[in-house]
non-specific serine/threonine protein kinase (Erythranthe guttata), 643 residues
Amino acid sequence: ENDKNTENYLWQSFDHPTDTLLPGMKLGWDAKTGLNRYITSWKSADDPSTGDYSFKLNINGFPEIFLTDKRVVDYRSGPWNGLRFSGVPEMKPSPLISFSFVMNPDEVAYSFNVNNKSVYSRLLVKHSGALQRFIWIPTSKIWNLFWYAPKDQCDDYRECGAYGLCDTNSSPVCKCMKGFEPRNPQAWYLRDGSGGCIRVGKLDCGSDGFLTLRNVKLPESGTAFVDKRMDLDGCRELCRRNCTCMGYSNANITGGGSGCVVWAADLYDMRQYAAAEGGQDFYLRVPAADLGIKRDHYSTETEGDELDLPLLDIATLLIATEDFSDANKIGQGGFGSVYKGVLAEGHEVAVKRLSKTSGQGIDEFKNEVKLIARLQHRNLVRLLGCCIDMEEKMLVYEYMENKSLDSFLFKKDRSSMLDWRTRFSIICGIARGLLYLHQDSRFRIIHRDLKASNILLDKEMNPKISDFGMARIFGGDQTEANTKRVVGTYGYMSPEYAMDGLFSIKSDVFSFGVLVLEIVSGMKNRGFYQTNNQLNLLAYAWKLYREGEGLKILDKAAGETYSASEVMRCIQVGLLCVQEHTEDRPNMSTVVLMLSSDFVSMPQPKHPGYCLGRRPHDNDLSPPKQDESCTINQVTVTMMDGR
Protein backbone atom coordinates (compact mmCIF):
# COMPACT_ATOMS: atom_id res chain seq x y z
CA GLU A 1 0.00 0.00 0.00
CA ASN A 2 3.05 2.29 0.27
CA ASP A 3 4.02 1.69 -3.36
CA LYS A 4 3.68 5.07 -5.12
CA ASN A 5 4.39 3.68 -8.58
CA THR A 6 0.97 3.83 -10.24
CA GLU A 7 2.09 1.39 -12.95
CA ASN A 8 1.97 -1.37 -10.35
CA TYR A 9 -1.80 -0.92 -9.89
CA LEU A 10 -4.41 -2.32 -12.26
CA TRP A 11 -7.22 -0.42 -10.55
CA GLN A 12 -7.61 1.80 -7.48
CA SER A 13 -10.72 3.36 -6.00
CA PHE A 14 -9.17 6.83 -5.75
CA ASP A 15 -9.12 6.98 -9.56
CA HIS A 16 -12.86 6.38 -9.71
CA PRO A 17 -14.58 8.61 -7.13
CA THR A 18 -18.36 8.52 -6.79
CA ASP A 19 -20.05 11.42 -4.98
CA THR A 20 -17.25 12.08 -2.48
CA LEU A 21 -13.70 13.45 -2.63
CA LEU A 22 -11.48 12.32 0.25
CA PRO A 23 -8.07 13.65 1.37
CA GLY A 24 -5.41 12.69 -1.16
CA MET A 25 -7.88 12.00 -3.97
CA LYS A 26 -7.40 14.04 -7.13
CA LEU A 27 -10.00 15.83 -9.18
CA GLY A 28 -8.87 16.35 -12.78
CA TRP A 29 -6.95 14.89 -15.72
CA ASP A 30 -4.05 12.45 -15.77
CA ALA A 31 -2.37 12.68 -19.19
CA LYS A 32 -0.43 9.44 -18.73
CA THR A 33 -3.44 7.24 -18.03
CA GLY A 34 -6.09 9.32 -19.79
CA LEU A 35 -8.21 9.35 -16.63
CA ASN A 36 -10.63 12.20 -16.04
CA ARG A 37 -11.51 12.08 -12.35
CA TYR A 38 -14.63 13.87 -11.14
CA ILE A 39 -17.42 13.35 -8.62
CA THR A 40 -21.08 12.78 -9.45
CA SER A 41 -24.11 12.91 -7.17
CA TRP A 42 -26.36 10.01 -6.25
CA LYS A 43 -29.72 9.79 -7.97
CA SER A 44 -31.46 10.38 -4.62
CA ALA A 45 -30.76 10.03 -0.90
CA ASP A 46 -31.50 6.29 -1.15
CA ASP A 47 -30.39 5.59 -4.72
CA PRO A 48 -26.59 5.52 -5.25
CA SER A 49 -26.86 5.21 -9.02
CA THR A 50 -25.43 8.07 -11.07
CA GLY A 51 -27.34 11.30 -10.53
CA ASP A 52 -27.63 14.54 -12.47
CA TYR A 53 -24.96 16.68 -10.79
CA SER A 54 -21.21 16.55 -11.49
CA PHE A 55 -18.26 18.52 -10.13
CA LYS A 56 -15.66 18.41 -12.88
CA LEU A 57 -12.43 20.21 -13.79
CA ASN A 58 -12.35 21.93 -17.19
CA ILE A 59 -8.71 21.95 -18.37
CA ASN A 60 -9.25 24.32 -21.30
CA GLY A 61 -7.66 27.76 -21.07
CA PHE A 62 -7.05 28.59 -17.41
CA PRO A 63 -8.47 25.48 -15.64
CA GLU A 64 -11.41 25.82 -13.25
CA ILE A 65 -14.08 23.53 -11.81
CA PHE A 66 -17.75 23.52 -12.80
CA LEU A 67 -20.80 22.14 -11.00
CA THR A 68 -23.22 21.02 -13.69
CA ASP A 69 -26.78 19.70 -13.75
CA LYS A 70 -26.45 17.27 -16.63
CA ARG A 71 -24.89 19.66 -19.17
CA VAL A 72 -26.20 22.89 -17.68
CA VAL A 73 -23.67 24.82 -15.57
CA ASP A 74 -24.93 25.83 -12.12
CA TYR A 75 -21.74 27.07 -10.47
CA ARG A 76 -18.12 27.92 -11.38
CA SER A 77 -15.20 27.93 -8.95
CA GLY A 78 -13.05 30.39 -10.87
CA PRO A 79 -9.42 29.52 -11.79
CA TRP A 80 -6.72 28.60 -9.27
CA ASN A 81 -4.64 31.66 -8.30
CA GLY A 82 -1.91 30.05 -6.22
CA LEU A 83 -3.82 30.24 -2.94
CA ARG A 84 -7.36 29.26 -3.79
CA PHE A 85 -9.92 29.18 -6.55
CA SER A 86 -10.73 32.77 -7.49
CA GLY A 87 -14.44 32.34 -6.71
CA VAL A 88 -13.99 30.54 -3.38
CA PRO A 89 -12.65 33.15 -0.92
CA GLU A 90 -13.28 30.76 1.99
CA MET A 91 -10.29 28.65 0.86
CA LYS A 92 -7.94 30.44 3.23
CA PRO A 93 -4.85 28.92 4.90
CA SER A 94 -6.09 26.68 7.68
CA PRO A 95 -4.45 24.53 10.37
CA LEU A 96 -6.98 21.82 9.48
CA ILE A 97 -6.90 21.54 5.68
CA SER A 98 -4.38 22.34 2.94
CA PHE A 99 -5.29 22.68 -0.73
CA SER A 100 -3.14 22.05 -3.78
CA PHE A 101 -3.44 22.43 -7.53
CA VAL A 102 -1.09 20.87 -10.08
CA MET A 103 -0.86 22.12 -13.66
CA ASN A 104 1.84 20.57 -15.84
CA PRO A 105 2.06 18.48 -19.04
CA ASP A 106 1.46 15.26 -17.08
CA GLU A 107 -1.60 16.29 -15.10
CA VAL A 108 -4.02 19.04 -14.19
CA ALA A 109 -5.58 18.24 -10.83
CA TYR A 110 -6.96 19.64 -7.58
CA SER A 111 -6.68 17.84 -4.24
CA PHE A 112 -6.77 18.53 -0.52
CA ASN A 113 -5.17 17.00 2.56
CA VAL A 114 -5.74 17.18 6.30
CA ASN A 115 -2.87 18.54 8.39
CA ASN A 116 -3.73 16.46 11.44
CA LYS A 117 -4.35 12.71 11.29
CA SER A 118 -7.10 13.05 13.87
CA VAL A 119 -9.06 15.30 11.50
CA TYR A 120 -11.40 13.84 8.89
CA SER A 121 -12.84 15.80 5.99
CA ARG A 122 -14.81 15.03 2.84
CA LEU A 123 -16.14 16.98 -0.12
CA LEU A 124 -19.57 15.81 -1.27
CA VAL A 125 -21.83 16.64 -4.21
CA LYS A 126 -25.43 16.05 -3.08
CA HIS A 127 -28.30 14.76 -5.19
CA SER A 128 -29.93 18.16 -4.61
CA GLY A 129 -27.06 19.95 -6.38
CA ALA A 130 -25.34 21.26 -3.25
CA LEU A 131 -21.57 21.03 -2.95
CA GLN A 132 -20.59 20.54 0.70
CA ARG A 133 -17.41 20.09 2.74
CA PHE A 134 -17.75 18.35 6.10
CA ILE A 135 -15.34 18.12 9.04
CA TRP A 136 -15.69 15.34 11.62
CA ILE A 137 -15.90 16.64 15.20
CA PRO A 138 -14.65 13.82 17.47
CA THR A 139 -15.96 15.32 20.72
CA SER A 140 -19.55 15.63 19.53
CA LYS A 141 -19.27 12.80 16.99
CA ILE A 142 -20.95 14.70 14.19
CA TRP A 143 -20.02 15.78 10.68
CA ASN A 144 -19.95 19.58 10.83
CA LEU A 145 -20.80 21.51 7.66
CA PHE A 146 -17.57 23.45 7.01
CA TRP A 147 -18.36 25.02 3.62
CA TYR A 148 -20.98 24.80 0.89
CA ALA A 149 -21.77 26.15 -2.58
CA PRO A 150 -23.67 27.62 -4.26
CA LYS A 151 -24.51 29.81 -1.28
CA ASP A 152 -25.99 33.02 -2.68
CA GLN A 153 -27.41 34.63 -5.80
CA CYS A 154 -23.97 35.67 -7.05
CA ASP A 155 -22.83 32.04 -7.03
CA ASP A 156 -25.41 31.32 -9.73
CA TYR A 157 -23.61 30.88 -13.04
CA ARG A 158 -23.64 34.02 -15.25
CA GLU A 159 -26.13 35.73 -12.94
CA CYS A 160 -25.27 39.18 -14.34
CA GLY A 161 -24.37 38.21 -17.91
CA ALA A 162 -21.48 39.63 -19.95
CA TYR A 163 -19.60 42.57 -18.41
CA GLY A 164 -21.80 42.49 -15.32
CA LEU A 165 -20.48 42.45 -11.75
CA CYS A 166 -22.50 40.61 -9.12
CA ASP A 167 -22.27 41.98 -5.59
CA THR A 168 -24.40 40.64 -2.74
CA ASN A 169 -23.51 43.69 -0.65
CA SER A 170 -25.39 46.05 -2.96
CA SER A 171 -28.91 46.32 -4.27
CA PRO A 172 -29.64 45.31 -6.93
CA VAL A 173 -26.88 42.72 -7.01
CA CYS A 174 -26.06 43.21 -10.71
CA LYS A 175 -24.04 46.25 -11.80
CA CYS A 176 -22.57 47.06 -15.18
CA MET A 177 -18.82 47.65 -15.21
CA LYS A 178 -17.65 51.20 -15.81
CA GLY A 179 -18.15 52.14 -19.44
CA PHE A 180 -21.00 49.65 -19.92
CA GLU A 181 -24.79 49.84 -19.73
CA PRO A 182 -27.54 47.17 -19.55
CA ARG A 183 -28.19 45.35 -22.80
CA ASN A 184 -31.89 45.09 -21.93
CA PRO A 185 -32.81 48.07 -19.70
CA GLN A 186 -36.36 46.79 -19.10
CA ALA A 187 -35.17 43.40 -17.83
CA TRP A 188 -32.36 45.05 -15.85
CA TYR A 189 -34.88 47.40 -14.29
CA LEU A 190 -36.82 44.33 -13.14
CA ARG A 191 -33.64 42.88 -11.63
CA ASP A 192 -33.00 40.28 -14.31
CA GLY A 193 -29.34 40.89 -15.09
CA SER A 194 -28.73 37.72 -17.10
CA GLY A 195 -28.75 39.66 -20.39
CA GLY A 196 -25.59 41.43 -19.28
CA CYS A 197 -24.15 44.75 -20.40
CA ILE A 198 -22.85 46.37 -23.58
CA ARG A 199 -20.09 48.92 -24.01
CA VAL A 200 -21.18 52.57 -24.23
CA GLY A 201 -18.15 54.08 -25.98
CA LYS A 202 -15.95 52.63 -28.71
CA LEU A 203 -12.54 51.15 -28.08
CA ASP A 204 -9.51 52.61 -29.85
CA CYS A 205 -6.82 49.97 -29.77
CA GLY A 206 -3.97 52.49 -29.81
CA SER A 207 -5.19 54.69 -26.97
CA ASP A 208 -7.19 52.36 -24.72
CA GLY A 209 -6.27 52.08 -21.07
CA PHE A 210 -6.97 49.63 -18.26
CA LEU A 211 -9.23 50.11 -15.27
CA THR A 212 -8.40 48.16 -12.10
CA LEU A 213 -11.27 46.16 -10.62
CA ARG A 214 -10.20 45.10 -7.14
CA ASN A 215 -11.30 42.06 -5.12
CA VAL A 216 -13.19 40.33 -7.93
CA LYS A 217 -13.77 36.78 -9.07
CA LEU A 218 -11.92 36.30 -12.35
CA PRO A 219 -14.05 35.85 -15.50
CA GLU A 220 -14.87 32.51 -17.06
CA SER A 221 -11.50 31.28 -18.32
CA GLY A 222 -12.06 28.42 -20.77
CA THR A 223 -10.72 30.46 -23.70
CA ALA A 224 -8.13 32.51 -21.78
CA PHE A 225 -4.42 32.52 -22.66
CA VAL A 226 -1.98 31.69 -19.84
CA ASP A 227 1.76 32.34 -19.59
CA LYS A 228 3.15 31.51 -16.14
CA ARG A 229 6.57 33.06 -16.87
CA MET A 230 5.38 36.56 -17.84
CA ASP A 231 5.19 39.37 -15.27
CA LEU A 232 2.28 41.80 -14.95
CA ASP A 233 3.94 44.57 -17.01
CA GLY A 234 4.54 42.16 -19.85
CA CYS A 235 0.96 40.93 -19.51
CA ARG A 236 -0.34 44.50 -19.80
CA GLU A 237 1.70 45.09 -22.94
CA LEU A 238 0.55 41.81 -24.47
CA CYS A 239 -3.09 42.75 -23.86
CA ARG A 240 -2.59 46.33 -25.11
CA ARG A 241 -1.12 45.14 -28.42
CA ASN A 242 -3.90 42.58 -28.94
CA CYS A 243 -6.96 44.63 -29.92
CA THR A 244 -9.31 41.75 -29.06
CA CYS A 245 -8.01 41.52 -25.48
CA MET A 246 -10.71 42.58 -22.99
CA GLY A 247 -8.65 42.30 -19.82
CA TYR A 248 -5.78 40.63 -18.00
CA SER A 249 -4.67 39.49 -14.55
CA ASN A 250 -1.93 37.71 -12.64
CA ALA A 251 -2.09 33.93 -12.85
CA ASN A 252 -0.66 33.62 -9.33
CA ILE A 253 -1.26 36.12 -6.52
CA THR A 254 1.37 34.72 -4.11
CA GLY A 255 4.77 36.36 -3.64
CA GLY A 256 3.61 39.71 -4.98
CA GLY A 257 2.01 38.19 -8.06
CA SER A 258 3.32 36.39 -11.14
CA GLY A 259 2.20 34.91 -14.42
CA CYS A 260 -0.20 36.29 -16.99
CA VAL A 261 -3.78 35.49 -17.99
CA VAL A 262 -5.35 37.30 -20.95
CA TRP A 263 -9.04 37.25 -21.92
CA ALA A 264 -9.86 37.88 -25.60
CA ALA A 265 -13.60 37.20 -25.39
CA ASP A 266 -16.62 38.61 -23.55
CA LEU A 267 -16.21 38.58 -19.76
CA TYR A 268 -18.75 36.42 -17.91
CA ASP A 269 -19.56 35.34 -14.36
CA MET A 270 -17.61 37.94 -12.40
CA ARG A 271 -18.49 39.01 -8.89
CA GLN A 272 -17.34 41.66 -6.45
CA TYR A 273 -16.08 40.77 -2.98
CA ALA A 274 -15.51 42.99 0.03
CA ALA A 275 -11.84 43.72 0.67
CA ALA A 276 -11.74 41.38 3.65
CA GLU A 277 -13.42 38.53 1.78
CA GLY A 278 -11.03 37.79 -1.07
CA GLY A 279 -10.94 38.03 -4.82
CA GLN A 280 -8.06 39.56 -6.78
CA ASP A 281 -7.25 42.44 -9.11
CA PHE A 282 -8.48 42.37 -12.71
CA TYR A 283 -7.54 44.93 -15.35
CA LEU A 284 -10.42 45.83 -17.67
CA ARG A 285 -9.83 47.38 -21.09
CA VAL A 286 -11.69 50.70 -21.43
CA PRO A 287 -11.54 53.75 -23.73
CA ALA A 288 -9.14 56.41 -22.50
CA ALA A 289 -12.08 58.74 -21.82
CA ASP A 290 -13.51 56.34 -19.23
CA LEU A 291 -10.35 56.50 -17.15
CA GLY A 292 -11.13 60.14 -16.38
CA ILE A 293 -14.55 59.37 -14.93
CA LYS A 294 -14.29 59.69 -11.16
CA ARG A 295 -17.83 58.69 -10.32
CA ASP A 296 -18.37 54.97 -9.91
CA HIS A 297 -20.46 54.44 -13.04
CA TYR A 298 -21.80 51.05 -12.08
CA SER A 299 -22.83 51.96 -8.57
CA THR A 300 -26.46 53.03 -8.21
CA GLU A 301 -26.99 52.27 -4.54
CA THR A 302 -28.74 55.08 -2.71
CA GLU A 303 -27.78 56.47 0.66
CA GLY A 304 -29.52 57.36 3.91
CA ASP A 305 -33.19 56.58 4.17
CA GLU A 306 -33.88 56.31 0.43
CA LEU A 307 -35.82 53.25 -0.64
CA ASP A 308 -32.91 51.83 -2.61
CA LEU A 309 -34.85 50.32 -5.51
CA PRO A 310 -36.63 51.47 -8.70
CA LEU A 311 -39.69 53.70 -8.36
CA LEU A 312 -42.51 52.87 -10.77
CA ASP A 313 -45.13 55.44 -11.69
CA ILE A 314 -48.74 54.68 -10.88
CA ALA A 315 -49.81 54.92 -14.53
CA THR A 316 -47.56 51.97 -15.40
CA LEU A 317 -49.13 49.84 -12.66
CA LEU A 318 -52.67 50.88 -13.58
CA ILE A 319 -52.07 49.65 -17.12
CA ALA A 320 -50.29 46.49 -15.93
CA THR A 321 -53.16 45.46 -13.61
CA GLU A 322 -56.00 46.74 -15.82
CA ASP A 323 -56.93 49.39 -13.25
CA PHE A 324 -56.55 46.88 -10.41
CA SER A 325 -59.44 44.82 -11.71
CA ASP A 326 -60.92 42.07 -9.54
CA ALA A 327 -60.10 39.60 -12.30
CA ASN A 328 -56.41 40.22 -11.62
CA LYS A 329 -56.68 40.04 -7.82
CA ILE A 330 -54.68 37.08 -6.55
CA GLY A 331 -54.64 37.70 -2.81
CA GLN A 332 -56.17 39.66 0.04
CA GLY A 333 -54.59 40.44 3.39
CA GLY A 334 -54.78 42.73 6.36
CA PHE A 335 -52.68 45.44 4.71
CA GLY A 336 -54.32 45.39 1.27
CA SER A 337 -54.70 43.40 -1.93
CA VAL A 338 -52.29 41.70 -4.31
CA TYR A 339 -52.77 41.84 -8.08
CA LYS A 340 -51.18 40.12 -11.02
CA GLY A 341 -49.79 42.57 -13.58
CA VAL A 342 -48.10 42.44 -16.97
CA LEU A 343 -45.63 45.20 -17.83
CA ALA A 344 -45.05 46.61 -21.30
CA GLU A 345 -42.55 43.98 -22.48
CA GLY A 346 -44.58 41.08 -21.17
CA HIS A 347 -42.93 40.67 -17.75
CA GLU A 348 -45.36 39.25 -15.20
CA VAL A 349 -45.27 40.89 -11.79
CA ALA A 350 -47.29 40.89 -8.59
CA VAL A 351 -48.36 44.24 -7.16
CA LYS A 352 -49.18 44.55 -3.47
CA ARG A 353 -51.42 47.59 -3.03
CA LEU A 354 -51.46 48.95 0.49
CA SER A 355 -54.95 49.63 1.80
CA LYS A 356 -55.59 53.36 2.21
CA THR A 357 -57.58 52.69 5.38
CA SER A 358 -54.89 50.58 7.00
CA GLY A 359 -53.05 52.89 9.35
CA GLN A 360 -51.00 49.94 10.55
CA GLY A 361 -49.48 49.39 7.14
CA ILE A 362 -47.37 52.52 6.68
CA ASP A 363 -44.47 51.48 8.91
CA GLU A 364 -44.66 47.90 7.70
CA PHE A 365 -44.53 49.12 4.09
CA LYS A 366 -41.36 51.15 4.65
CA ASN A 367 -39.85 48.34 6.70
CA GLU A 368 -40.47 45.80 3.95
CA VAL A 369 -39.04 48.05 1.23
CA LYS A 370 -35.83 48.81 3.11
CA LEU A 371 -35.31 45.21 4.14
CA ILE A 372 -36.04 43.28 0.97
CA ALA A 373 -34.28 45.78 -1.28
CA ARG A 374 -31.04 44.79 0.43
CA LEU A 375 -31.64 41.04 0.61
CA GLN A 376 -30.58 38.73 -2.20
CA HIS A 377 -31.06 34.98 -1.93
CA ARG A 378 -32.59 32.32 -4.14
CA ASN A 379 -35.04 31.38 -1.37
CA LEU A 380 -36.30 34.91 -0.71
CA VAL A 381 -38.94 36.61 -2.84
CA ARG A 382 -37.47 39.29 -5.11
CA LEU A 383 -38.68 42.87 -4.76
CA LEU A 384 -38.52 44.58 -8.17
CA GLY A 385 -39.71 48.08 -7.33
CA CYS A 386 -42.21 50.22 -5.50
CA CYS A 387 -44.66 53.03 -6.14
CA ILE A 388 -45.48 55.99 -3.89
CA ASP A 389 -48.11 58.36 -5.25
CA MET A 390 -50.02 60.56 -2.82
CA GLU A 391 -51.87 58.08 -0.57
CA GLU A 392 -51.05 55.12 -2.81
CA LYS A 393 -48.21 52.86 -1.72
CA MET A 394 -47.40 49.69 -3.65
CA LEU A 395 -44.73 47.00 -3.80
CA VAL A 396 -43.88 45.21 -7.04
CA TYR A 397 -42.57 41.63 -6.77
CA GLU A 398 -41.57 38.85 -9.09
CA TYR A 399 -44.64 36.80 -9.95
CA MET A 400 -44.87 33.30 -8.51
CA GLU A 401 -46.66 30.96 -10.90
CA ASN A 402 -47.49 28.35 -8.27
CA LYS A 403 -48.88 30.70 -5.64
CA SER A 404 -48.22 30.01 -1.98
CA LEU A 405 -47.37 26.74 -0.27
CA ASP A 406 -50.66 26.57 1.62
CA SER A 407 -52.60 26.60 -1.68
CA PHE A 408 -51.11 23.14 -2.34
CA LEU A 409 -50.46 21.76 1.11
CA PHE A 410 -53.93 22.13 2.61
CA LYS A 411 -56.03 21.56 -0.54
CA LYS A 412 -57.09 17.95 -1.06
CA ASP A 413 -57.29 18.32 -4.82
CA ARG A 414 -53.76 19.77 -5.08
CA SER A 415 -51.75 18.25 -2.22
CA SER A 416 -50.82 15.21 -4.33
CA MET A 417 -48.76 17.55 -6.52
CA LEU A 418 -46.39 17.79 -3.56
CA ASP A 419 -44.68 14.39 -3.59
CA TRP A 420 -42.12 13.66 -0.91
CA ARG A 421 -39.15 14.72 -3.04
CA THR A 422 -40.79 18.12 -3.62
CA ARG A 423 -41.72 18.52 0.06
CA PHE A 424 -38.19 17.74 1.20
CA SER A 425 -36.75 20.19 -1.33
CA ILE A 426 -39.15 22.88 -0.06
CA ILE A 427 -38.15 22.22 3.58
CA CYS A 428 -34.44 22.50 2.71
CA GLY A 429 -34.99 25.65 0.65
CA ILE A 430 -36.88 27.39 3.46
CA ALA A 431 -34.10 26.39 5.88
CA ARG A 432 -31.43 27.90 3.61
CA GLY A 433 -33.42 31.11 3.22
CA LEU A 434 -33.88 31.44 6.98
CA LEU A 435 -30.18 30.72 7.57
CA TYR A 436 -29.38 33.58 5.19
CA LEU A 437 -31.63 35.94 7.15
CA HIS A 438 -30.20 34.92 10.52
CA GLN A 439 -26.53 34.61 9.66
CA ASP A 440 -25.37 35.14 6.07
CA SER A 441 -27.02 38.41 5.01
CA ARG A 442 -25.73 41.93 5.64
CA PHE A 443 -28.08 42.12 8.63
CA ARG A 444 -29.33 39.69 11.25
CA ILE A 445 -33.03 39.58 10.48
CA ILE A 446 -35.85 38.00 12.48
CA HIS A 447 -38.82 37.32 10.18
CA ARG A 448 -41.45 36.93 12.94
CA ASP A 449 -44.19 35.61 10.66
CA LEU A 450 -42.96 32.44 8.98
CA LYS A 451 -45.93 30.33 7.86
CA ALA A 452 -47.19 28.32 4.90
CA SER A 453 -49.00 31.24 3.25
CA ASN A 454 -45.79 33.28 3.34
CA ILE A 455 -43.85 30.64 1.42
CA LEU A 456 -44.23 31.23 -2.32
CA LEU A 457 -43.46 28.67 -5.03
CA ASP A 458 -42.00 29.46 -8.44
CA LYS A 459 -42.74 27.46 -11.58
CA GLU A 460 -40.21 24.81 -10.54
CA MET A 461 -41.66 24.61 -7.00
CA ASN A 462 -38.65 26.33 -5.44
CA PRO A 463 -39.69 28.00 -2.16
CA LYS A 464 -39.34 31.75 -1.56
CA ILE A 465 -39.83 33.33 1.86
CA SER A 466 -42.04 36.43 1.58
CA ASP A 467 -43.74 39.13 3.67
CA PHE A 468 -41.15 41.07 5.65
CA GLY A 469 -43.60 43.61 7.06
CA MET A 470 -43.13 42.23 10.59
CA ALA A 471 -39.38 41.58 10.31
CA ARG A 472 -36.86 43.13 12.68
CA ILE A 473 -33.14 43.81 12.26
CA PHE A 474 -30.83 42.82 15.12
CA GLY A 475 -27.47 44.41 15.83
CA GLY A 476 -24.31 42.33 15.68
CA ASP A 477 -24.31 41.50 19.40
CA GLN A 478 -28.08 41.43 19.89
CA THR A 479 -29.67 38.04 20.48
CA GLU A 480 -33.10 38.91 21.90
CA ALA A 481 -35.63 41.74 21.98
CA ASN A 482 -38.93 42.51 23.66
CA THR A 483 -42.08 44.05 22.28
CA LYS A 484 -45.43 45.06 23.75
CA ARG A 485 -47.01 44.66 20.34
CA VAL A 486 -47.22 40.96 19.58
CA VAL A 487 -47.65 40.45 15.85
CA GLY A 488 -47.74 37.32 13.75
CA THR A 489 -49.97 34.29 13.39
CA TYR A 490 -51.18 32.06 16.20
CA GLY A 491 -50.16 28.46 15.71
CA TYR A 492 -46.71 29.51 14.51
CA MET A 493 -45.71 31.75 17.44
CA SER A 494 -43.20 30.48 19.97
CA PRO A 495 -44.42 30.39 23.60
CA GLU A 496 -42.02 33.09 24.81
CA TYR A 497 -43.12 35.45 22.03
CA ALA A 498 -46.88 34.91 22.32
CA MET A 499 -46.92 35.18 26.11
CA ASP A 500 -44.07 37.57 26.97
CA GLY A 501 -43.31 39.41 23.73
CA LEU A 502 -39.75 38.03 23.64
CA PHE A 503 -38.44 37.28 20.16
CA SER A 504 -35.12 36.09 18.79
CA ILE A 505 -33.79 33.88 16.01
CA LYS A 506 -35.10 30.97 18.09
CA SER A 507 -38.64 32.35 17.62
CA ASP A 508 -38.20 31.93 13.87
CA VAL A 509 -36.76 28.46 14.49
CA PHE A 510 -39.95 27.53 16.35
CA SER A 511 -42.10 28.76 13.44
CA PHE A 512 -39.91 26.79 11.04
CA GLY A 513 -40.44 23.64 13.12
CA VAL A 514 -44.21 24.07 12.94
CA LEU A 515 -43.94 24.57 9.19
CA VAL A 516 -41.82 21.43 8.77
CA LEU A 517 -44.40 19.31 10.60
CA GLU A 518 -47.18 20.84 8.49
CA ILE A 519 -45.30 20.05 5.27
CA VAL A 520 -44.67 16.46 6.36
CA SER A 521 -48.23 15.84 7.56
CA GLY A 522 -50.27 18.03 5.22
CA MET A 523 -52.17 19.25 8.30
CA LYS A 524 -52.46 22.72 9.81
CA ASN A 525 -51.22 23.21 13.35
CA ARG A 526 -53.86 25.85 13.94
CA GLY A 527 -57.26 24.15 13.79
CA PHE A 528 -55.86 20.63 14.15
CA TYR A 529 -57.43 18.46 16.81
CA GLN A 530 -57.95 14.81 17.65
CA THR A 531 -61.45 14.24 19.00
CA ASN A 532 -60.41 11.54 21.44
CA ASN A 533 -57.13 12.81 22.77
CA GLN A 534 -57.45 16.58 22.25
CA LEU A 535 -53.94 16.94 20.84
CA ASN A 536 -52.74 19.70 18.53
CA LEU A 537 -50.39 18.89 15.64
CA LEU A 538 -47.19 19.42 17.64
CA ALA A 539 -48.34 17.19 20.48
CA TYR A 540 -49.70 14.60 18.05
CA ALA A 541 -46.36 14.43 16.20
CA TRP A 542 -44.54 14.24 19.54
CA LYS A 543 -46.78 11.40 20.71
CA LEU A 544 -46.27 9.34 17.55
CA TYR A 545 -42.52 10.00 17.57
CA ARG A 546 -42.14 8.81 21.18
CA GLU A 547 -44.16 5.69 20.37
CA GLY A 548 -41.85 4.89 17.44
CA GLU A 549 -44.64 5.47 14.93
CA GLY A 550 -43.55 8.81 13.50
CA LEU A 551 -44.12 7.71 9.90
CA LYS A 552 -47.86 7.62 10.59
CA ILE A 553 -47.93 11.39 10.40
CA LEU A 554 -46.70 11.45 6.78
CA ASP A 555 -49.34 12.82 4.42
CA LYS A 556 -50.65 10.05 2.16
CA ALA A 557 -50.70 12.61 -0.65
CA ALA A 558 -46.88 12.59 -0.56
CA GLY A 559 -47.00 9.27 -2.40
CA GLU A 560 -45.45 5.87 -1.87
CA THR A 561 -41.93 6.76 -3.03
CA TYR A 562 -40.00 8.25 -0.14
CA SER A 563 -37.03 7.64 2.11
CA ALA A 564 -38.28 6.58 5.55
CA SER A 565 -35.06 7.81 7.18
CA GLU A 566 -35.41 11.18 5.44
CA VAL A 567 -39.00 11.56 6.62
CA MET A 568 -38.05 10.65 10.19
CA ARG A 569 -35.13 13.07 10.05
CA CYS A 570 -37.49 15.88 9.08
CA ILE A 571 -39.92 14.97 11.86
CA GLN A 572 -37.08 14.92 14.40
CA VAL A 573 -35.77 18.27 13.12
CA GLY A 574 -39.28 19.72 13.34
CA LEU A 575 -39.68 18.54 16.93
CA LEU A 576 -36.24 19.84 17.90
CA CYS A 577 -37.23 23.25 16.56
CA VAL A 578 -40.52 23.44 18.50
CA GLN A 579 -39.10 22.53 21.91
CA GLU A 580 -40.52 24.68 24.66
CA HIS A 581 -37.30 26.32 25.84
CA THR A 582 -35.28 28.50 23.46
CA GLU A 583 -31.93 27.13 24.61
CA ASP A 584 -32.97 23.63 23.53
CA ARG A 585 -33.81 24.66 19.96
CA PRO A 586 -31.04 24.43 17.34
CA ASN A 587 -29.96 27.43 15.28
CA MET A 588 -30.55 27.38 11.53
CA SER A 589 -26.97 26.49 10.61
CA THR A 590 -27.38 23.31 12.67
CA VAL A 591 -30.80 22.70 11.09
CA VAL A 592 -29.34 22.97 7.57
CA LEU A 593 -26.60 20.55 8.53
CA MET A 594 -29.05 18.03 10.03
CA LEU A 595 -31.24 18.18 6.92
CA SER A 596 -28.37 17.87 4.47
CA SER A 597 -26.49 14.94 5.96
CA ASP A 598 -27.46 11.38 6.77
CA PHE A 599 -24.45 11.03 9.07
CA VAL A 600 -25.14 13.78 11.60
CA SER A 601 -25.95 12.56 15.09
CA MET A 602 -29.07 14.43 16.27
CA PRO A 603 -30.19 14.87 19.89
CA GLN A 604 -33.55 13.57 21.01
CA PRO A 605 -36.22 16.29 21.17
CA LYS A 606 -37.79 17.38 24.42
CA HIS A 607 -41.42 18.24 25.05
CA PRO A 608 -42.70 20.80 22.50
CA GLY A 609 -44.20 24.15 23.43
CA TYR A 610 -47.95 24.64 23.03
CA CYS A 611 -49.20 21.13 23.64
CA LEU A 612 -52.61 22.26 24.87
CA GLY A 613 -55.42 20.58 23.01
CA ARG A 614 -58.90 21.86 22.29
CA ARG A 615 -62.24 20.33 21.43
CA PRO A 616 -63.87 21.12 18.11
CA HIS A 617 -66.69 23.00 19.87
CA ASP A 618 -64.34 25.17 21.97
CA ASN A 619 -64.63 28.87 21.35
CA ASP A 620 -62.19 30.05 18.71
CA LEU A 621 -60.66 33.28 19.90
CA SER A 622 -58.72 33.82 16.68
CA PRO A 623 -59.52 36.74 14.39
CA PRO A 624 -61.57 36.23 11.23
CA LYS A 625 -59.64 34.15 8.73
CA GLN A 626 -58.12 35.80 5.68
CA ASP A 627 -57.76 34.30 2.24
CA GLU A 628 -54.36 32.63 2.35
CA SER A 629 -54.13 31.45 -1.25
CA CYS A 630 -52.15 34.50 -2.30
CA THR A 631 -49.81 34.22 -5.24
CA ILE A 632 -47.31 36.77 -4.03
CA ASN A 633 -46.30 38.12 -0.66
CA GLN A 634 -49.52 37.49 1.26
CA VAL A 635 -49.53 40.13 3.97
CA THR A 636 -50.11 39.25 7.59
CA VAL A 637 -53.04 40.14 9.79
CA THR A 638 -51.47 41.83 12.79
CA MET A 639 -52.58 40.48 16.15
CA MET A 640 -52.60 43.15 18.86
CA ASP A 641 -52.68 41.60 22.28
CA GLY A 642 -53.00 43.89 25.30
CA ARG A 643 -50.96 42.54 28.15
In short: The longest strand covers residues 47-58. The CA atoms of residues 127 and 579 lie 30 Å apart.
